[in-house]
Amino acid sequence: MQLSLLEILWITIVSMGIVFVMLTILMFLMQGSSKIIQMLEAKSHPTAGVVGNPVNLAPETPKDNGTLFETNKLARVAALVALTQASADVPDKHFEIVSIEKKVD
User: Fold this and answer.
1) Is 67 left (phi over 0), alpha (psi -120 to 50) or beta?
2) How far is CA 90 from CA 66, 68, 77, 84, in A?
């Protein structure tokens, strides 16, 4: 069976069109499922996924009811990162946080 150049071109264009349409459908299905998942997560966690609310990045001072580690989430993250860095070379050692101090330059 021999195909002419015009038939080969037509088959190529049609097959590329089918692939394009299928990829477009797949893209819309993925976007739709992500929207559905976001809506379900927003229902289960009312404050999750809220866009547009400003985030307060002002440094927090320690309060009377707890240490800086207990009151400031960023201090907690900094301590965990410091522990991870310290234990990277010696995994069998036990580390303990004695104190956390905030240095202001």
Assistant:
1) beta
2) 31, 27, 20, 10
CB-count burial class (<10 Å; 0-12, 13-18, 19+) for 79? middle
The answer to whether 97 and 80 are in contact (CB under 8 A) is: no
Amino acid sitting at position 63: K
Q: HSE (CB half, 13 Å, CA atoms) of 35?
A: 6
Tokens matching residue 53: 């609310």
Encoded tokens for 7: 């038939």
CA torsion sign for 36, 41, 42, 47 is negative
- Residue pLDDT, tens place only, 30-88: 999 999 998 888 787 665 555 555 555 555 554 445 566 667 778 778 888 888 887 77
- How is residue 9 written in tokens? 């071109």
Instruction: Read off the pTM.
Output: 0.41
**Terminal Cα distance for the chain, rounded:** 81
